[in-house]
Specification:
about 300 residues; alpha/beta; 8-stranded mixed sheet; globular
């Protein structure tokens, strides 16, 4: 079977995408390819300077590109709302790609007091999706794509310490946030089908891809281990392919999870993958959904 590639992304003319974390890495590469395919691409970026530079870089490669910067800080729920309001000025929204994320060596908290991994990687995207869900439904046949990580397979939901007050380990908290991404994806998909909505919810992961996500990792990892990994992992452009397939493949279905075809899902073209069984626990997904509404004050279906 032919391997999926950028050439398989069909024309996206007339469609509007919001890609969070689009100023660098996988998010940037996905935004670039979507722009190349004729989409209007909204780049959700925390830094105005870096966001504008990303827009300019896309325009330098695709002069006819239709791109717009949306200032978006997932660490501040008030700013998430402001960004959503800006997006809602668009007449349509065909796909929300929740790509942005962080890894933090030291415990940090968001503007609203949430542990940073949980707040930025899960609660921020949850709230953003909630604010935009009605517009996605109005557009029709829209998608929500959540970018997770194969690290979710090593995660445990610390239900009694979601904010890492009692203990903090960087990789454990990152993995937990990526498991949360999948709980969110599958619970959203379940509720969408329950309401007979036209939106579908999907997830993907890039495998091993050398992006700026590793900039806060220990120096030993950055200086020695990451360079050694280069021959065995995806480039950011290759790492964006699972995202692009989830967002644009006509054959993709709600609840699908795309990841690299290679051994241990580290590299290779995107194919359908099976997440760890703990990600498919419906009771945990519902529990996280209810907690997320309580913490963010956003009920995704309140205005649908």
């Amino acid at each position: 079977m032919k391997a999926y590639s950028e050439a398989d992304v069909p024309s996206q003319s007339g469609r509007v995408f919001l890609v969070t974390g689009a100023n660098t890495g996988i998010g940037f590469e996905a935004a670039l390819v979507l722009a190349m395919c004729g989409a209007r691409v909204l780049l959700g970026c925390r830094s105005e300077e870096r966001g504008r530079a990303a827009c300019e870089q896309i325009l330098s490669q695709v002069p006819e590109a239709d791109v717009k910067l949306i200032l978006l800080d997932l660490a501040d729920l008030a700013l998430v709302r402001e960004a959503a309001d800006e997006v809602l000025k668009e007449p349509r929204l065909d796909c929300l790609i929740n790509n942005a994320g962080l890894v933090s060596r030291q415990r940090a908290v968001t503007k609203d007091g949430f542990e940073a991994h949980f707040g930025v990687n899960h609660l921020g995207p949850f709230a953003l999706t909630g604010h935009l869900l009605a517009r996605l439904e109005e557009t029709g046949d829209a998608r929500v794509v959540n970018v997770s990580s194969n690290g979710h397979r090593m995660a445990i939901m610390e239900w009694d310490d979601l904010q890492a007050v009692d203990s903090y380990r960087m990789f454990a908290r990152y993995a937990m946030s990526k498991l949360a991404n999948l709980h969110f994806t599958f619970e959203l998909e379940r509720r969408l089908r329950e309401r007979d909505c036209s939106i579908v919810s999907l997830a993907c992961h890039p495998g091993g891809a050398l992006t700026e996500l590793g900039r806060d990792m220990p120096k030993l990892v950055q200086q020695i281990l990451l360079p050694l990994a280069v021959p065995f992992v995806n480039t950011p452009r290759q790492g964006a392919l699972p995202t692009l397939r989830a967002a644009t493949d006509a054959g993709a279905c709600g609840g699908d999870y795309f990841g690299p075809r290679g051994a241990f899902e580290v590299a290779g073209p995107p194919v359908l993958r099976c997440p760890d069984e703990r990600a498919l626990n419906p009771a945990h997904a519902k529990r996280l959904w209810d907690i997320s509404i309580e913490l963010t004050g956003v009920d995704p279906f309140a205005h649908l």
